[in-house]
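[09:14] KT: can someone run the structure on this one? pasting the chain below
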Amino acid sequence: MLAVDLRQIVFFPVVAAFSALLCACSSNADMSARQATVVLNESFAKTPDTRKVLTGMNNIGRQALSDLWNTPDGKYQKAMEAAGLLTIVPPKGKIYNPANPRQWMYALDVKLTERGKRMVRGTPQIIPAPSKNTWNTVYENVVFCTKQVTKITSISTNDEVASAEYTWEYGSFTPFYDAYHLAQPTDTSTCSTQPQTASASFVRRNGVWSLSTQ
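[09:31] RB: done, C-alpha cells below
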C-alpha cells in the first residue's frame, strides 16, 4: 500500500506540469478562425453603422402636414413615430419672423423617446441657428445595423502577428433601419445584405489577440 501511495503522490505533480506545458504551448499557437471571428465581431459591435436623425425643432417651411407625410422624409418620420422611437408635435400655428412679419414658417417639435435614445451613439451634430429668431438644428447618430463576419476565408500567423481574409455582411438591423426601409424601400445600399470581402491584421499581447492599430 505504501508503494501505491508514493506513485499517487508523484503522479499528480507530473500531470500538473504537463497541463502547464500545454497552456504555454497553446498561448503561442497559430491564430484560429474562431479567434479571428470573435475579435472582429467584438470590434464591429463597438462601431455600428449609424445614420443621422433630426431632432428638436424641424423647419418644414410653409407646406401642409398632409403634403409632408407624403414625402420620403415625412414617411420616415411617421414610421419612426409608429415604432415608438420618437414623438412629433405638429405645429400649433405659424412662426413669424419678428423682424419681418411677412416671413413665417411651420415647425415640428421632434424628440427621441427613451427607446430611441438607447440606440444613439456618439455626440450629436449641431448646426448653429442662422439668426436670433431661429434655433439650432440637431442631428443624432442612431444605430441602423452592425457588421458581422460570415466566414474566415484564409488566415496566417507569424509569431505574434496574424492576418486574415474574410467575408462579412450587415446584420442586427434596428427599428431605425426598419423605419427607414419602410420609407425608402428601393434603397439597397444602406446596410446592404450583399456579402463583402475584407482583410484584417492582428497582434497578440500577453497571449490575447486583438486588432492591429498599425
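[09:33] KT: thanks! The longest strand covers residues 137-158.
[09:34] RB: yep, looked fine to me
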